[in-house]
Amino acid sequence: MYTKTTLALAAALTTFLTTFLATQPAGAAEPAGVSPPTLGAAAPTGTAPGAAPPTGTVLGACGPGRLCLWPKPDFKGRPWTHELATTDIDSCVALPPGTSAQSLANRTGRPVTTYQSAECGETGEFETYPGRGTWVPQTAYEVRAFKLWER
Q1: Which of 9, 50, 57, 98 has the largest count of CB atoms under 10 Å?
Q2: 39 assigned to some structural domain
Q3: CA-based Rg of the chain, rounded to a whole angstrom?
Q4: pTM
Q5: Angle at Cα 22 formed by Cα 136 and Cα 10, nearest 5°?
Q6: Which residues are bridge partners to 31 per DSSP?
Q7: Number of domains within the chain
Q8: 121 and 115 in contact (C-beta within 8 Å)?
Q9: What angle (nearest 5°) sits at the alpha carbon of residue 43, between those of residues 119 and 150?
Q10: Other CB atoms within 10 A of residue 120 CB
Q11: DSSP H/E element including 23
């Protein structure tokens, strides 16, 4: 239920932002101190499943059935990849000691929760992303661990 609601919200937000951005005149001034919304970059859930990425956006390469985590924003650096077939479901998986990720792609078909804590502690920051093609060019915190969920 939670995943379906999250997916529906992400799809509705993507549709709204796409429509809103398409109706804005080219070169329209933004109010002082306000940046225009950037689809997939500012939204913590990245691009919605099935939604086309914004024009000019370069998504990180991540094969089907994989969770890919990059050490730098915008899918830069050598990614860590985890396959659904070789990753324990509902278990905390820490990134190598002393490392973290700042962008990710979830193509596992399952929700994944990322954690600021290397122990998947919920006292720090954490976020859950849908698994049917979510790309996040900039996470809100440095990811040090994750959990893949059954559904």
Answers
A1: 57
A2: no
A3: 16
A4: 0.63
A5: 35
A6: none
A7: 1
A8: yes
A9: 45
A10: 19
A11: helix 2-23
Sheet of 134-136: strands edge to edge? Answer: 80-83, 66-70, 103-106, 134-136
pLDDT digits (tens, 9 = 90+) for 4-54: 434 444 444 333 333 333 333 443 333 333 233 333 333 334 544 444 455
Q: Which of 52, 56, 78 is nearest to 135 (CA)?
A: 52
CB-CB contact of 66 with 108 (8 Å): yes
In a domain, 45, yes or no: no
* Domain interval for residue 148: 65-151
Contact in structure between 131 and 111 (CB atoms under 8 Å) = yes
Integer Cα distance of 95 and 22 in angstroms: 39
Question: 3-state class of 147 per DSSP?
Answer: strand
**Residue 73, in any domain of the structure:** yes
CATH of the domain at 79: 2.60.20.10
